[in-house]
Protein 1
Amino acid sequence: DSGVTQTPKHLITATGQRVTLRCSPRSGDLSVYWYQQSLDQGLQFLIQYYNGEERAKGNILERFSAQQFPDLHSELNLSSLELGDSALYFCASSPYSGQGRSYEQYFGPGTRLTVT
Amino acid sequence: LAKTTQPISMDSYEGQEVNITCSHNNIATNDYITWYQQFPSQGPRFIIQGYKTKVTNEVASLFIPADRKSSTLSLPRVSLSDTAVYYCLAPNQAGTALIFGKGTTLSVSS
């Protein structure tokens, strides 16, 4: 158990819908990272927040957005869902800010999103 | 464009040493290279990270040459429980995004 929690564990929804994935980092960790893992694309970095501020951005679609709240939990919002958005979404936390410092991250169990 | 490249799969036997190499292209020159292990239906688990030369911890060693164009994860005396997918992770040159390799599936047999 990494100490990172993600809800829900599974999510089934229809194309065009909007969903919110939630992540609670380990106690004391200020960084939250979001990743998408699909069979054909592997692990794709989406976005990182550090203490409430966006710190790094990867291949995150405009239909996707994220934020980190004052209590450090984070939410990933996915809208106008398409079949290709079906994937495992992981959240990871770290006590470090990245960028020249450690990328040691602790991953949650993931949310499996199925778009039908 | 930053890119990391790893072998798709490797096979080994219990007790052998396994070396997995990741090639890095256009990554940040002053940043850590990190390796993760992932079992099916679980999130990746941190193994080791390094900046240059050699780093060793209780489970693995990491070798990074001076040009930092590659890194090699070394697993000493693997066991069946080391069967997993191994990923290298490096930041892009600007340090604004993280690049995961496609992963190397290691299969350990008895």
Protein 2
Amino acid sequence: SYELTQPPSVSVSPGQTASITCSGNDLGGKFAHWYQQKPGQSPVLVIYQDTKRPSGIPERFSGSNSGNTATLTISGTQGMDEADYYCQAWDSNTVWVFGGGTKLTVL
Amino acid sequence: QVQLVESGGGVVQPGRSLRLSCAASGFTFSTYGMHWVRQAPGKGLEWVAFIWYDESNKYYGDSVKGRFTISRDNSKNMFHLQMNSLRAEDTAVYYCARVAGFAEPLTVWGQGTLVTVSS
């Protein structure tokens, strides 16, 4: 079955750039989507189809996807960005799969 | 506005059944695929099941295949998850979510409903 691997945690200082990776076999050949989830809240889509931002998502959120790795980048990270982040992709065999999630700490 | 509202969660004994529902509003429900995604306490997101807009395609995660059944009623803007033979490991918050296509993102999520399987 298809699997997506994320680092359990990433730490970043306020105003710096945070990068969260998501690895999967030939992930670059699929669309990667990213969701933000704050404690007690439902997930929110922040990046879709590798690089696109939904309406209302700040420009500091960006994404890339190539080879076996997709990356979510948050530039000028703010305290409000502290959350869990999940990557997700669709695979024709495994169908829908989420990464294990990355806890972003802003300190 | 676009909204999904789950209902039907609660405490249930192992081996028993429970039916979750998701009510949709603010969009043309009959043109979207719908997912159930769950999150066990303190854990990550796990995809559970999917139903295409016209029920022509239904898919299930390996952990629920054969026990859970997804269905929808486009006339009522609702879809459901029938959960049978529940296990302790099915304890989770269950979210419903909307999707426009197979490889498309889950763009709208409900607030979730908690299912606790315990004796």
